[in-house]
Design a protein that fits this description.
Elements: H1 7-32, H2 36-45, H3 47-56, H4 60-79, H5 86-105, H6 114-119, H7 127-146, H8 148-156, H9 168-190, H10 195-209, H11 213-238, H12 242-260, H13 268-278
Helix pairs in contact: 1-7, 1-9, 1-10, 1-11, 2-5, 2-9, 2-10, 3-4, 3-5, 4-5, 4-9, 7-9, 8-9, 8-13, 10-11, 10-12, 11-12
Length: 279
């Protein structure tokens, strides 16, 4: 297969498999906490940072970090107004940031990289990009492993969590910080608009078939890696956009899971919590 004989495609394949597994595992917790909107918000709100990085010639990862931090600060500031509320604050911040990013990207004299920022450039993966993705993805995976017990308590029994020494609010904040890292790692390859598919698609499919949260995480990581592999191979064979094809592969896996398992398993959450805390 040609994809195995090209160094460029090999780097892209390795990166998307790593990111797919990381995003899939993280997505399970995000869906259980109903934080899908937060994932979409962070991805879209970092666009100004990406554009500014392009303008000044800085690494896109640095721009993504700046965009995430700026968006988080604006959301926190807006949420302090009790007349606004957190959901409105997030909505206003995200739409403002995305509009500003689009305005900057479409201004005269800006390098023509808007498509890359919005839809990614997997085939442009360099060795340094791959190393950065491995470090960020590995950090997220390690944090999820270390915090599994706290996450299970905060998600499945938040009322009893404080008696176990777990603060649900802090756990959710830490999970959102991990989300920010995952989005930063994946946005360069999948783009501002498509990264959400790799976080939500495999996780949603895994929740439909997994009977415990541990099984769901394992299945989601595997499906995320498979989505990356199938998407990139299909892109190379069909000559389609790599990021968009990977995103479609992730959603296709969810559709397949929905057809094969019309009803999601019941009562998995309590058993998962008991098994986690008892282990």
């Amino acid at each position: 297969m040609d994809i195995l004989s090209s160094g460029l495609l090999q780097r892209a394949l390795l990166e998307v498999v790593i990111l797919g597994a990381t995003c899939g595992a993280l997505g399970v917790w995000l869906l259980h906490l109903r934080h899908t909107y937060a994932a979409e918000s962070l991805a879209h709100a970092m666009l100004p940072g990406l554009v500014i990085a392009t303008l000044v010639g800085a690494p896109l990862l640095l721009g993504a970090f700046g965009g995430v931090l700026g968006a988080a600060a604006l959301i926190a500031l807006a949420a302090r107004d009790t007349r606004v509320g957190p959901e409105v604050a997030v909505g206003v911040t995200v739409t403002t940031a995305f509009g500003l990013g689009a305005l900057l990207a479409l201004a005269p004299g800006v390098p023509a990289r808007l498509g890359e920022l919005l839809f990614g450039d997997l085939l442009g993966t360099s060795t340094s990009d791959l190393v950065a993705a491995c470090v960020l993805g590995g950090g997220v995976a390690l944090a999820l492993w270390a915090g599994h017990r706290s996450l299970a308590a905060a998600v499945f029994d938040p009322a009893a969590a404080p008696s176990l020494g777990v603060r649900p609010a802090r756990v959710e904040l830490a999970l959102l910080a991990l989300l920010g890292l995952a989005v930063v790692a994946a946005v360069q390859g999948l783009g501002n608009l498509l990264v959400l598919a790799l976080i939500v698609g495999p996780a949603a499919a895994a929740i439909r078939v997994g009977r415990s949260v541990g099984a769901q995480i394992a299945v989601a990581a595997g499906l995320g890696a498979v989505a990356g592999l199938l998407g990139l191979v299909a892109s190379a064979e069909l000559e389609t956009a790599a990021g968009a094809t990977v995103a479609l592969a992730a959603i296709a896996l969810w559709v397949l899971a929905a057809l094969l398992a019309p009803r999601a398993p019941r009562a998995a959450t309590r058993r998962s919590l008991v098994e986690t805390l008892g282990g």
